[in-house]
Structure formats: C-alpha cells, structure tokens
Write a structure and sequence with these properties.
CATH superfamily of the largest domain in chain A: Thiamin diphosphate (ThDP)-binding fold, Pyr/PP domains
Strand content of chain B: 15-25%
Shape of chain B: elongated
Distance between the termini of chain A: 52 Å
Radius of gyration of chain A: 21 Å
Helix content of chain A: 40-55%
Number of strands of chain A: 15
Structural class of chain B: alpha+beta
CATH topology of one domain in chain B: Alpha-Beta Plaits
Structural class of chain A: alpha/beta
CATH class of the largest domain in chain A: Alpha Beta
Number of helices of chain A: 14
CATH architecture of the largest domain in chain A: 3-Layer(aba) Sandwich
Number of helices of chain B: 2
Strand order of the largest sheet of chain A: 9-11-10-13-14-15
Number of strands of chain B: 4
Oligomer: heterodimer
Distance between the termini of chain B: 50 Å
CATH topology of the largest domain in chain A: Rossmann fold
Chain lengths: 392, 97
Amino acid sequence: MAKIVAVTGNEAVAEALRQINPDVCAAYPITPATDLMQRFADFVSNGKVDTELVLVESEHSAMSACIGAAAAGGRVATATSSQGLALMWEMLFIAAGDRLPIVMPLVNRALSAPLNIHGDHSDSMGARDSGWIQLYSENAQEAYDNTIQAFRIAENMDIRLPVMVCFDGFIISHSIERVEYIDDKDVKNFVGEYKEMNPLLDMDKPKSYGPLILPDLYMEYKRAQHEVMTKVKDVVLNVADDFEKLSKRKYGLFETYRLDDADIAIVILNSAAGTAKDVIDQFRAKGIKAGILKPRLFRPFPYEEVADAIKNVKALCVMDRADSFGAYGPLFIELCGVALHLQERPLMINKIYGLGGRDFMPEHAELVLNELVEISKTGKVKIFKEYIGVRE
Amino acid sequence: MKEPLWKKLTPGSVVLEAGSAVKFKTGSWRAFRPKFIEENCIHCLFCWMFCPDMSVIVKDGKMTGFDYDYCKGCGICAFECPGKKGNKAIAMEEEGK
C-alpha cells in the first residue's frame, strides 16, 4: 500500500535514498541540498540504513569519494546544489568517463556571482556536457519518483552512467506537498540487488581505473561514450514502464500537457511548468489552443521525439531558467536542434525567466502566450531572446 | 563489415590486465640520461629508493645501473646520490650528445 504524506522535496528524496539504502554516500552540505543530506544522515545515525556516510571537506572530495566507492563496486549516492556542483566539475567528467553509476539529486540553485541561494538552472545547465544523464522534476513527487528510477537507469548493464536528478531549490526542496510513497519492499524490489561491473575490490582480478589515454585512443573512448548515451532513451522508457506498473504514475522522455492539437506552446522545465499549466487551462477556456512540453530527460536530449511532439505547433516559446550570456538559453539551443528534424519548424522565441529564484508568476506565462498568439497571427518574430520579470 | 575499434573498448577505459604499465615504455621522454659511475658508488641505494619509477636496477643489494626503457631522466637519483668523498656516482648527461 502506498502511503500518502505531506513532505518537502528534500524530505521525499531523502526518503527515496533511505528506501534504496546505498552502500556509500559522500556529501558536503550546501543550501538548499543541505537539508536533504541532513535528513539522510539522521537515517544513518538512527540505523535506518547501513550506508557508509562519508563526511568530506568539500564537494570536490565528495564526488571523488563517490567515484572511488563506485569503482570499488558499491551502490553510491550524493546530493548537492549550485557552487557545490561547480566545485565537483572536474570530477563529474571522471564519474561519467569511468562509467560509474552514481546517483545525485541536484537541488537546482543559482551560481555566484552575485551570491544567491535560490532556485535556477544555471548549475545543472553548466554540467550538461559532463556526460551525466539528467532528469528534471516538476514537484516533490517527481523528484522522489525520478530518484528511484535513476538507480535503475544508472545501473543498467548497458548504460553504467551517473544520473543527476534535478529539482528546483526552495520552490520544491523546501515546500511541503502531497507525495505518495511506495512501500519499502516494493522500492527495494524495483531497484534490485546492485550488480557490480569491474569492481576494484575484486582482488582476484586486479584492474586499474583512470589510465592515461593519449591521442591514439582518446577519441575512440569519447565516441564510445556518445554511443552509450544513444541507448539511454530506451532504458529510461523501459524503467518508466516498470515504474508505472508499480506506482500507476506514468513517465516518459518528456511530459506533454494539452499539446496534441496546440497551435502555440511553451517548452519549460521543472516547477515553473506547474504554474504554466494553470495558465494553459485559462487560454484553452478562451478557445486558444495552447499546450506545454516539459522535458524530463535533458541529457541525452530526445530530439526526434520532441520534434514529433511539436511538429504541428505554429509558434513556440522556449523558457530558460538559466542564461548563456551572449547566446540563447540552453534549452532554446536544444529546441533549435529539434527544429533540424522538422521540414516546417514553428516560429520560435526564447525567454529567460526566474533567475536567482525570481518568482515565475501566472502573468508571466500569460504575457508569453499572448505574444505567441500574436506571432502565430502575423508570422513575425520581433525579438528572439528576451528577459521576462525583470524589474523596470 | 569490420567492427570499429571504438566498439571493442572496455567501458570506462578500465584496464583489466594487471601490470600492463610495463608495456608502456616511457624512456623516450628523456632529455637527460643518468650515467652510473661505479667507482663512486657506496651502494646506499638512495637512488633506488628515490626513483619515482622503477628504473634503478639492483642486484644482490648492489646498484648495477639504469633501466633506460622507463627512466624519464628526472635527475632525482643524481641529486640524492651522496657519492664517495664528494664524487657522485650518478651524473646527468644530455641525450644525444
């Protein structure tokens, strides 16, 4: 029997980690992820899990310890945010390049400077090319569900890649929501026994991780790494199918909301998608065919599938809660890649919103949808990239 | 069709064969080579201890010379060598001279 509770996003994800009971967890506190690991540390202290919790002196060390433990042959998890992820940066590439199935909830928070502790996606977007699989979560339920599914995806014997489970700092991590917990035994069955691949602690078969690979082979290893990523979509969908049988909750590569017959649409990640859905309903009530596409799997990016989902849309706004200064937002750039797969592409605009935890309000979604109505009527885009919700 | 090389690689570039570093001969990196001057050697084995590779060859407790397949010519052995009466048993010489 599922249990219905009122919990924060951090609490829900800590609960998922308790149910999974990883072998090793190395972590360093950083707002807003601190509370997640603090709750997990309680489970360790109270004997609810038998995880070896390694309290290290920095996130660089946290990821390093996770890499060591995963290479040794353990099931490994950690969590971080913002500057913590930034400090892990060089180790992120090593975790992925060594093909180590580490699972890391990432509580999205803005990067300094200026110093800010609130939610935006600049941290995870900065790590998009590290070779990690990235899943995004709209609310506490999705963060909990994605964390459980992440272990199955990461540990699939054909994949063996680290997974980042992203959800918005404070908006989700610290707000109390209704969440359905799956029974402990069902989570354990779903995730299954950990299967090792080339563990260092197999003393009868000595091996080395992290060798020097010079120009004669480096490129071949990178080509192979890309190939693994092309297999991830199918694994994500298979795991989602199994998860639906268990939970009755359906997941895909992305979620569409009233998109099937939509003329105008918004592409938006994480918690802001929830706000936008309400506004879509209002526009639908006025007879305007509006819809939403909310990516779930951002790395690898499902270009063909997204292209198929938006092929009949006339005007599209891609909303980025992260910026690439002097360029379009990171999500918009992906949608430009999607457009390559379409004979006739929608007219596209890019809005940067919600940086450093700036609230995304229904009126912001209204502004965007009204502009899309105008663009679909006139066939003209005035400005490709604009900031919304900036104080005048 | 022949399977491309990149499809045959071990996941994560893990080396599954123990001791395979012996196949990677690094001696060609050397710009200076250590020269062993046997008459000045007191066989203290400081060179053997300090060598960051395993390029000092010791037989029966005696220093006998260098393994030039791996010695990168760092010169630590020559620096540490106490020699005999102020005369070093290891001298660094420029390669190719």
